[in-house]
Amino acid sequence: MDGSLKISKTQPEKVHLEISVRMSILAELKRRFQEALRPWLQDPGDLLEMIRPSQEERFGDYQANLAMPLGKRLGRSPREIAGELVARLDVADMAEPPEIAGPGFINFRLRTDWLAKQLSQAVADPRLGVSPVAQPKTYVIDYSAPNIAKPMHVGHIRSTVIGDALCRMLRFMGHRVISDNHIGDWGTQFGMILYGFKHFLDPQAYQQRPVEELARLYRLVRLLMDYQEAKATLATGRLQARIAELQAHLQRPVSTTAPSEQEHDAGSSGSSPTAKDPPLRRAMKKELEAYLEELQELEKKVVQVEQSPQLARLAQEHPNLEAKVQAETAKLHAGDPENRRLWQEFLPHCLAELDRIYQRLGVQFDYTLGESFYHDRLAGLVEDLLNRGVAKVSDGAVCIFLEGFDTPMIIRKQDGAFLYATTDLATLQYRMQTWQPDAILYVVDHRQSLHFQQLFAAARLLGYKDVELQHISFGTVLGEDGRPFKTREGDLVGLESLLDEAVARALKIVSENDDAKPDGPELSAQERAEIAQRVGIGAVKYADLSQNRTSDYVFSYSKMLALTGNTSAYMQYAYARVRSIFRKGGVDPERLRNSGAPIFLSTRPERDLGLALLRFGEALELALEDYRPNLLTAYLYELANRYSIFFEQCPVLKAEPDSLRTSRLLLCDLTARTIQKGLELLGIEVVERM
Ligand code: ARG
Question: CA-CA distance, 316 to 228, in Å (whole number)?
């Protein structure tokens, strides 16, 4: 772990051997296996993936299962292969002699003295023993990207928080990261506020609180548009008819006749399904429920407007709003002076509002190049693609036909308008030209997955072959009822109100906790408020990041703020506990770290904790492999649990002799620093007291 990288130009084949940068124990083991495998294989490929931390204590600390596939490949007995591998493997400095078990599993137990030495090095290292990667890459990360001009809601949390964590983790590993907030500052939502501004403005309110007034205009126009759309849908009567049909089917009595007769029945009633078959009945019931819900939603939208004479009048006076809003948007795009001027006027307000929220969240971007930035490039891009034969005119629209997709990617509509996809292509081209990235990550919800598949396929056609293009997809945030998280009025929960609520609840918990301290409360009102900010916002972020990002998750304040379990509050608490030990013992952590005192791992909890501490780099590697921050949270949770066992079983300040006390203090300190760094990489702050 000395981090030195010796590359000699004259002996290129020795480069590999002399790289002594070690990112993790696992990477080191893999490297040593690679050497041992060399007589059989120059490139072991994914065989090395079969070296993993052991799931069970009796199999040691790490396990290699690659003798089985290798034996198969070479046509030899895996046990024999394992024996030869072990004989050739040079791990004596770090592990006990490896054991071969069963058909050819190789089990490793790390030497405790080696672990202790690694820990001492980690203590002295500001990077906690995690070396940066040997070959840094350039990443562009596209995240957050809200459509501005409307308030941010709960749906924006995931992209913002996951993207920010990925930026931080990749940067820590030594990569060059360019964060780019591709805001929607050019779409229909501006058409909506343009229309609202021209017809519904409250000039005084706009002068006093422009952001609020613009948000009000957005909501008002949205409400009226939704109303008109709901009315139109209901007027067709299709939904109601389908519901009546299903209800009629389901009201027929369930037959108790034998299955064969049921089949006969099913046949005789033509192609429509019968209601007698229980699975079918269930499916129909479900369908009916969904339709009823849709009907209810539509009716709610109608009532919301019609119950207010003023809103009802506005809806009457402004028919076909959708088309009018589209027209305002089109005028903006076409360069209409008034709409451009208004857009210029609105934009700073929207951006200031956005910045305020990012500041609260502690999120920063290197660039904010929104959709409008690319507008002037779109016409040229489409012409260029036509000239190069990448795009073709079909039914008056310009399309890119992509192998493996049923529908082409449309980049210019018949009416000449450009699309979301056109902008994304221009953006990709700009990024490639400007930053020459090795990878572009798009942190965007799963509903856009087809769009990104097509975008990436088109990028390859344009000649961008080597860049890694990834859609970092994620699921929906649900309320406790298992449905998209909405307010009683049916809007998605606003991001601000969600943060406020989390902080308010955190304040209550922090205060109760402080009041319950055996020697009386320690914190002033101001301290409590500051801690509550960190705990509350940390809880929201951590709850999100600790989910497997591709699944939906249920947003629950009480779960995310629990002081035990896989929550940020639990980690912050563990951190604060270490700090309190240091205060109580009057120990200066800085002095302790520089003392060079040895670490002893003589008991089981100490060894378990020590090994967990050394796995930080491994957790990061794993989390970045598939861009999954939840693998880092899982690691932190494991670490905090091991610390908690250690803390229960191993006295620290009272330990004797002094050298043992020092060793345990070092373990405590390294735990606190690892938790702090881990949380920092997730965008979460620690607290000194709690
Ligand atoms: N503004 C878009 C939306 O709210 C997300 C943009 C994501 N990034 C991108 N390059 N398409 O749906």
Answer: 9
